[in-house]
Amino acid sequence: MKLSIFSNRSAALAVRRHAQHRHSMAAKHNLRYKRMLGALLLAVFSSSGWAFSGYGHGLICNTAQQALPATLAQRLDDIARAGGQKDFAQLCTWPDTIRRQREFDHTKTWHYINVSRSATQVVAQDCGGKGCVTEALQQQWAKLQQLPNNWQALAFVGHFVGDIHQPMHVSYRDDRGGNRLRLNFAGERSNLHQYWDGRLLQRQPQRLKPVMLSPTPVPISKKLPVYQWATESLQITRMIYRQPHKSIDAGSDLHQQHIALWNQQASLAAQRLAELLNALYRGQHD
């Protein structure tokens, strides 16, 4: 009888230990799963934020801001905080975050301009009735000149200066700015627009060269040379489309060429944005 009781207790203890072990293993497995899921989500959101998306726009605006006098740089952050943003760099990403909101649905077409395959320059007639990046940038610049503390106008100007220098935002109408040009990047399916606007710098984040402003501020202009800037981007687009794009390896010469072009355009955008903001605010930050 005692042996039976002992055996039952041993069995119960064994069952309890087994249950505890399974619970411990399940907890460890769950922790590993959560960590893997977190890493995956981080990778997904990080990759969608590269290039001229969130990462690129923030980098352009931050580089431009660093070239400005300290009091003016602080003023840009103050204007951004008035709009609920952490700083000027984050403010420049705001126009992308609100496109799905009904209130800002009309701004979707403001981020790009598409032309025909035969076009060698961008002209006003290329802008559709719903608006495009050239006209939107000019309109928001005019609004910012009237109300320099208008945080939305400042956000749009900072953002659209980036967009107009992104070749896939000044591209061809028949394939929706590279969205229909399929390619594989590093063995994964993508398209030319996603590659330039979301994957290009996934493995190689950039640091733009510092902006050097002229000692004499550029005179402020009511009209910006938006079609000149867009035409410059179109020329790069035309060159990109002449390259092979069925497959691009992360470490290939072709990929490095794209990165060099990205850096060139982003640096140019930062230079021009800094000059615009310095000209606009130069008499107001003393």
**Total number of strands:** 5
Q: Considering DSSP H and I runs of 4 or more, what fraction of the residues is helical?
A: 55-70%
Topology order in helix (H) and strand (E) letters: HHHHHEHHEEEHHEH
Distance between the termini: 96 Å
> What oligomeric state do the depicted chains represent?
single chain
Largest sheet: 3 strands, mixed
Taking Cα atoms only, what radius of gyration do you get, to the nearest Å?
A: 26 Å
Shape: globular
**Which structural category do the helix and sheet elements fall into?**
mainly alpha
> How much beta, percentage-wise?
5-15%
Record the strand order, biggest sheet.
Answer: 4-3-5
Low-confidence stretches: 1-8, 26-50
* DSSP helical segment count: 10
Mean pLDDT over the full residue set: 83
Question: How would you describe this structure in keywords?
Answer:
286 residues; mainly alpha; 3-stranded mixed sheet; two-stranded parallel sheet; 10 helices; globular
Could you write a compact summary of the structure shown?
This protein has helices spanning 2-48, 54-66, 70-82, 88-91, 94-97, 133-146, 151-164, 192-199, 226-241, 253-281; strands at 113-115, 170-172, 182-185, 188-191, 247-248. It is mainly alpha-helical and 286 residues long.
